[in-house]
Amino acid sequence: MIKCPLCEGKSRKYWSDRLYKVYRCDSCLLSFISPVPADQESIYGKEYFTRWYIERYSARKAYTRRIISPIFKNARKGGRLLDVGCGIGILLEVAGEAGFEAYGQDTSGFAVGYTLKKGLRAFPGQLDEAGFSPCSFDIVTIFDVIAHIPDPAACLETCSRLLKPGGILAVKTPLHAGRLFAISEALSFTGKGRSLLHLPAQIFHFCPETFMVISGKLGLETVRGFCVREPGFIDSKDFKVSALAMLERLLSGRSSIIIMKKRK
Ligand SMILES: [Zn+2]
Fold it and tell me: Out of 101-110, 205-214, 243-252, which region has the weakest mean confidence (pLDDT)?
């Protein structure tokens, strides 16, 4: 038994292969990998951002514009927005075009360099080193990042601290159904099952119930939660990757977006 890193509840083994195990908390339903792979940050360099973002820039931007509109509807127009883990700045660009004063942060020097070259504002390094003032943002977004951060509770606490009273915290993270864990485990003998769950890069798997626990701990009010389909970029150069990507899209390929509000 390993204690849940979020609520310290009891957890049990939920998935395993030759190298890794995933445990699931009985109380908040957070799933987490063990052992946590070292050197996560080296994954997110030039090759990663070029393949998954720069080569798909316009499709990514259109997708971001579509999924972020319900969040903008809940926020004060023209306010200050912070995108945590901003990557190459696609969300910052969309937010700027929608009239927000947008700031980003990312630990990838390559991604922040790319963002700055576009004339956008981004800080390279850890969020708590960026020097942002408490209670200074109307919206904090954290898209496809929280599942990869070793201490998600501390990160969300920092996000909450940076929000103005009444401000919005919006989190997007993959939503992997229980059956995907079962299929992934059954495929583990092929050595490819892990990639269906984005393991080991994805340290945590969140459920809507997990966010209820998080919002309660942070004194936030959950405004809305909804599911979005991933754009399903298939890499046709590699059939094996394509087949897995199609299988994942068929079985899951969904993310949840949770909108929480800081109490006034
Ligand atoms: Zn828990």
Answer: 243-252
The number of distinct structural domains making up the chain is 1
Place of tokens 């990312």: 106
- The band of 100, judged by pLDDT with boundaries at 50, 70 and 90, is very high
123 CA distance to ligand 1 centroid (A)?
31
Distance 71 CA to ligand 1 centre (A): 27
Q: What is the pLDDT of residues 189-230, one digit of tens each?
A: 877 788 778 888 889 999 888 998 889 888 899 888 888 887
CATH number of the domain residue 51 falls in: 3.40.50.150
- Answer yes or no: are the C-beta atoms of 80 and 162 closer than 8 Å: no
Distance 218 CA to ligand 1 centre (A): 15
Q: Is the four-CA dihedral 258, 26, 6, 32 of positive or negative sign?
A: negative
CA–CA distance, 4 with 58 (Å, rounded to integer): 39
For ligand 1, the distance from its centroid to the CA atom of residue 7, given in whole angstroms, is 4
Number of Cβ within 10 Å of residue 122's Cβ equals: 23
Whether omega before 231 lies within 30 degrees of 0, making that bond cis, reads no
Residue 197 lies in a domain: no
Rounded to the nearest angstrom, the distance between the alpha carbon of 216 and the centre of ligand 1 is 13
pLDDT value of residue 128: 92
**Rounded distance from Cα 155 to ligand 1 centre (Å):** 16
Distance 109 CA to ligand 1 centre (A): 33
User: Global pTM?
Assistant: 0.88
Q: From the CA of 154, how far away is ligand 1's center (Å)?
A: 14
CA of 23 to the centre of ligand 1 (A): 10
Domain-embedded: residue 199: no
Look at residue 143 and tell me if it is in a domain: yes
- State which residues form the domain around 126: 42-175+214-262
